[in-house]
Design a protein that fits this description.
binds iron/sulfur cluster, single chain, two-stranded antiparallel ribbon
Length: about 350
């Protein structure tokens, strides 16, 4: 008989079909019961055993008695139901807190997921970086963010981005397992190309991601056109310099044939000059890539968002570059849910 395992590592949300098979067989039930359980949790997004009508009562009692169902609960929602962006403060079983964001833009409904509590990388422009790292999130805590926010959304979720709190590639295994659960056609069934994993540039994990030929989209926070400039805002650039980062992107392109998206947080008088556009063009023009320019969301620190005229000038200088340029007029900045603004105190 199964042991009592009511801890965050063993929540039902976050387990895959094999885990469910081992649970139901532990309780002397047939394997197809595991498929039913999987269906209830990931396809039907049921949050309680009472609603799982086709499972035997005793099995439900046994599982409920031994396993945690959902490792998260919603503590606070910021932003009206009708607002384009809503931010969710969620509490883990150990009392730690994380944030996830729901963003609506016409038909596109995106959830921004956190992968860690806090972050060790300390990017200078990022509120999460001020927290330091507390711990990695479990697969259950990552997938539960999705399932809770899906319940809150009036429309189906079309996209997931791992751009919330934490560096996803420093919690690599749990992030990939979570993406696999989101992508599983028998469950949530979100297309791989609708799931984006964003890294500040953890070079060995970019190689690993490439070698594994992961189909999820890859985004890289570049935020500077030179090594010196990157070092000013991203301490991780010391360990993984810009030339090694670009080499790893080339390797990724060669291995997967997928393009990457470079994220570029635009900071006044730091990386927003005409010279930056030229250096940036030289740096990434040879790569199959997109550039996403994100005018900075101020968090009360030393950096300033460029003026609207300066942002327009920067974008104007990018008009003839050989890669696609998009601008993220970050949603949710008014409720501190924009890029780099997630923090829990
Ligand atoms: S930007 Fe991302 S990697 Fe950098 S400190 Fe913030 S959460 Fe961490």
């Amino acid at each position: 008989m199964s042991l009592k395992r009511k801890n965050i590592e063993s929540s039902l949300i976050g387990m895959n079909l094999d885990d469910f098979i081992s649970i139901v067989t532990d309780f002397d039930e047939q394997k197809y019961r595991a498929e039913q359980l999987f269906n209830w949790i990931y396809k039907r997004n049921i949050q309680s055993f009472a609603e799982m009508e086709n499972l035997p009562k005793q099995l439900k009692v046994n599982i409920a008695d031994n396993y945690l169902f959902n490792p998260l609960k919603i503590l606070k929602v910021t932003g009206a139901k009708s607002a384009k962006t809503r931010k969710y403060l969620l509490e883990c079983q150990d009392g730690e807190k994380i944030e996830a964001v729901l963003m609506k833009e016409q038909k596109r409904i995106t959830i921004c997921l956190s992968s860690q509590i806090g972050c060790a990388l300390g990017c200078e422009f990022c509120a999460t970086g001020t927290m330091g790292i507390i711990r990695n999130l479990t697969v259950g805590e990552i997938v539960a963010q999705y399932l809770l926010l899906l319940k809150e959304s009036e429309k189906p979720i079309t996209n997931v981005v791992f751009m919330g709190m934490g560096e996803p590639f420093l919690n690599y295994d749990n992030v990939i397992k979570s993406a696999d659960l989101l992508n599983n056609p028998d469950g949530i069934n979100l297309g791989a190309r609708h799931i984006t994993i964003s890294t500040a540039g953890i070079v060995p994990q970019i190689h690993k991601f490439a070698e594994e030929k992961q189909r999820y989209k890859l985004a890289i926070s570049l935020n500077g056109s030179t090594q010196e400039q990157r070092l000013k805002t991203m301490p991780i650039a010391k360990k993984y310099p810009i030339d090694k980062l670009i080499e790893s992107v080339k390797y990724y392109n060669n291995e997967t044939r997928n393009l990457v998206t470079f994220e570029y947080v635009l900071l006044s008088d730091i990386n927003d000059s005409e010279l930056d556009v030229k250096r940036l063009t030289d740096l990434i023009s040879d790569l199959p890539c997109k550039l996403n320019v994100i005018p900075y969301n101020e968090i009360g620190g030393k950096f300033v968002r460029p003026s609207d005229d300066k942002i327009k000038e920067f974008l104007g200088n990018l008009l003839n570059v050989p890669f696609t340029v998009t601008t993220r007029w970050s949603k949710g900045a008014d409720i501190n849910a924009g890029c780099g603004q997630l923090v829990v105190t």
